[in-house]
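The instructor's notes for this session suggest beginning with a concrete chain rather than abstract definitions. Hand out the sequence below and ask the class to guess, before any prediction is shown, which regions might be ordered.
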Amino acid sequence: MSERAAAGSGSGAREKPTGNELERIVDQMDRAFRGPAWHGPSLREALAGVDARAAAARPIPGAHTIWELVLHVAAWEGVVRRRLEGDRAGLPDAENFPDVSDPGETAWQAALARLESGHRALMDGVSRIEVSDLDRPLDAHGTSAYGLLHGAAQHDIYHAAQIVLLRRAAGP
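After discussion, reveal the predicted structure:
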């Protein structure tokens, strides 16, 4: 497989980054959030065209809504950023998958803005770490910055896939 094919698919594929390991991780985080990604839609691509009604719908009983997933991802991007800064705190259950109290379009747009600003803040936090910090343990379990950042990209991919499935389950 060519480097281009390995790096992405479709007309928006970028060449494989040639920078250091941190730059390659940042590239993968950005692809998972904004695209283009080899696996299918990025998180933002999966959310394109979703309005408040669709975001609040629960087409699969017992599953989270798109809106709850957006708030969850935004909260965890904040946790990742804080952990990179040395904060070991987790996320209380009420903030992990918060309830949507106002299902209006203005509140949905605010949730999307929170997701965007949280991702920008995370990427800004990542820009302040050094390659030599990647192997530094960040918690008592030995999770490194390397593992945490890859996990953040994987988290976005996982929830983008859930959003795609929820949209399909909701129908046209």
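Then share the key points. The helical segments are 3-7, 21-33, 43-47, 52-56, 66-84, 93-96, 105-127, 145-170. Confidence is low (pLDDT under 50) at residues 1-14.
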